[in-house]
């Protein structure tokens, strides 16, 4: 007979000591899906190792998901650069395999969207890739609609799936 150990899961705002762990999560998941830096995916972002500093700026927020004290995922929102001031972007939503299928991405996205509303954003944009079918399904379920043309200047040239949601 096996013993099932309960998993203690927490969601909290990013802290400076989370930088190495969440960068490792993003690099691991990116490698799993073949999302390489040379194609302009998140792993190419120059601030990947300093997410706390990035998301400490006004209008930015990032949440960490921990299970049993280990960082297993995260995601955030920030103003969409080179865009209208009422549009934010859902960014850097990455979860290790052990954290998937538990509703954590949905919970985090809902918190992020609520935060964006309190910051005065009226619309939320995101970019992803067709490789991330589960993520696209979640975004559609949350009310994001597919759009043809990219918004802002994210630099993620190979993110061919673009979505927008009214807040």
Task: Give structural attributes.
single chain; about 170 residues; alpha+beta; Aminopeptidase; seven-stranded mixed β-sheet; 7 strands; about 25% helix; about 30% strand; globular
Q: Can you give a write-up of this model?
A:
- The structure is a single chain.
- With 167 residues, the protein is an alpha+beta fold.
- The protein has a domain of 113 residues: 3-Layer(aba) Sandwich (Aminopeptidase), CATH 3.40.630.30.
- The protein has 4 helices and 7 strands.
- The protein has a 7-stranded mixed β-sheet.
- Helix 3 links the parallel strand 4 and strand 5.
- The chain is globular and about 55 Å long.
CATH topology of the domain at 9-121: Aminopeptidase
Question: For the record, what CATH class of the domain at 9-121 applies?
Answer: Alpha Beta
Main beta sheet: 7 strands, mixed
Q: Determine the mean pLDDT.
A: 90
Number of strands: 7
Instruction: Give the SSE string.
Output: EHHEEEHEHEE
**Residues in helix, %:** 25-40%
Q: Let me know the CATH homologous superfamily of the domain at 9-121.
A: Gcn5-related N-acetyltransferase (GNAT)
Uncertain regions spanning at least 5 consecutive residues: none
Backbone structural class = alpha+beta
**How many individual helices?**
4
Estimate the strand proportion: 25-35%
Using the alpha-carbon principal axes, give the shape. globular
CATH architecture of the domain at 9-121: 3-Layer(aba) Sandwich
Distance between the termini: 49 Å
């Amino acid at each position: 007979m096996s013993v099932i150990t309960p998993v203690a899961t927490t969601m909290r705002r990013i802290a400076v000591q989370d930088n190495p762990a969440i960068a490792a999560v993003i690099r691991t998941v990116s490698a799993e899906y073949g999302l390489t830096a040379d194609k302009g995916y998140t792993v190419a972002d120059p601030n990947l190792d300093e997410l706390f500093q990035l998301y400490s700026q006004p209008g930015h927020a990032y949440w960490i998901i921990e299970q049993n004290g280990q960082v297993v995922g995260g995601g955030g929102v920030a103003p969409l650069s080179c865009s209208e001031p009422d549009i934010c972007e859902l960014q850097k939503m990455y979860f290790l395999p052990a954290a998937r299928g538990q509703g954590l991405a949905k919970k985090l996205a809902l918190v992020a969207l609520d935060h964006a509303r309190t910051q005065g954003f009226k619309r939320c944009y995101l970019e992803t890739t067709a490789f991330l079918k589960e993520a696209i399904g979640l975004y559609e379920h949350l009310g994001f609609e597919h759009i043809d043309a990219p918004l802002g200047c994210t630099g993620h040239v190979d993110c061919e799936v673009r979505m927008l949601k009214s807040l």
